[in-house]
Each structure stands twice: as structure tokens, then as C-alpha cells.
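Sync notes, pocket subgroup
Present: LS, DG
LS reminded everyone that the earlier model was apo-only. Rerun requested with MD6 included. Inputs:
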Amino acid sequence: MQATFHAIREPDWPEGLVLYPGLLTGNSCQSLLEAVEEALKDAPLFVPRMPGSGRPFSVRMSNFGPLGWVSDKEKGYRYEPLHPVTNKPWPEMPAILRDLWARLVDPRLPPEAGLINYYAPGARMGLHVDADEEATDVPILSVSLGWTARFRIGGLRRGGHTLSLVLKHGDVLIMGGTARRCYHGIDRIYPESGPSLPAAIGPGRINITLRRVTLP
Ligand code: MD6
Ligand code: FE
């Protein structure tokens, strides 16, 4: 797993933002994509919707772990123990993700949600802050797979200075400290810029974010 265990932090990045380029080897990425493919058989991708307007996200989602992030028109952003369509518990968190979290975030406080985002060609994600967790100070760990994305991150308020980062297949990004509370999103994904996802998923990008939701 640690082919290039090299943490990047830059002076102009928000404090607590750390990138590990290519931390997951090709084999780990392949096993993880197989685990995603298996999980999606049981917990298919759903279309999240904006609270109030009911406008669909362009990204489709599923989750690993005891809690999953969901959003719909009526009840908005929240964590739920059951899939919104199948009403079944989410698939178990793969060991590879639990191990990554134990190494990079906290070996004593396991992640409860592993949000799977699937970006088909053209999908993007608007600037947002992840604030639906009680454990607001625990870092979020993100893994990118498939096509490359341009990730944008700003400050604590909307409308300020932002910078962009390229996230590739096998990259791991940690958002802790100040970065945990910064606006961020995905501007775009670059077609054919990385390994193909399994045919059962489709072309594009998978991002998995591991989150601690409840306080111990
Ligand atoms: C994505 N990531 O990479 C979207 N959030 O597709 C996120 O929204 C994100 O990468 C919190 C922490 C890390 C992230
Ligand atoms: Fe986020």
C-alpha cells in the first residue's frame, strides 16, 4: 500500500489539508474497486436531491459502513443506517479502508460512513462544507479512483479566494484542522484521464470519503 508514502502540504493550502499522491497501489485500487462493485449490487447508486428544491445532484451515491450520508427534498442532508431505496443496511466497510483510516486518521475511533460518489462524464460537485457530522473535528479521508478530477478548495466562507488540486487514481486526501471546515467541491473530471472503472459501474470517477459521524 505504501509505494509512495509521501505527504504533501503547501504553504498556500488551508491548514490541515494533506495530499498523499498515489498512496494506494494499483493492486489496492483494483481490490477496492471490486469491493465497490460488490457493494453496489446490494446498495445501488441512488440520486441524492437538494433539500427544498428537490433538484438532483449530478453525482450518484451509495455508502459503506453503519451510517450512510443521504439527502432528499423533504428531510435534507443527514446520516441514515438504511439505504433510501432498498431499506437495507449499508455494506460493511472494506478492511482496506478501515486500515487506511487507522494509519492516517485515528486507530481508536473507526470511521462510521464511507460515502461513495460516482461521477459519470460531465458530473461535478458544487462548493460545500461537510457539516452534518457531530464529530466535526475528526478529519475526513478521501480516496480517488478512475478518471482524474479537479478539486477546488476555498476558505471558511463562500466567495473568497480558492485554489485547485488535481486528484488522481490512488490519491488520498485528508481534510483536518481548518481545512475540515473549508468550502470545497469538484469542478470537473477529465475524460479518459485514468484507469477505467469496472463496466458494471460505468465510465468516470469514484470518490470515497470516510467520516466519523457520532461522538464517542
Ligand atoms: C470528491 N470530495 O472528491 C468530493 N469532502 O469527489 C469531497 O467533497 C470531500 O474530498 C470532504 C473531505 C474530502 C473530500
Ligand atoms: Fe466534501
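DG: The chain has a mean pLDDT of 97.
LS: The longest strand covers residues 113-119.
Action: DG to write up.
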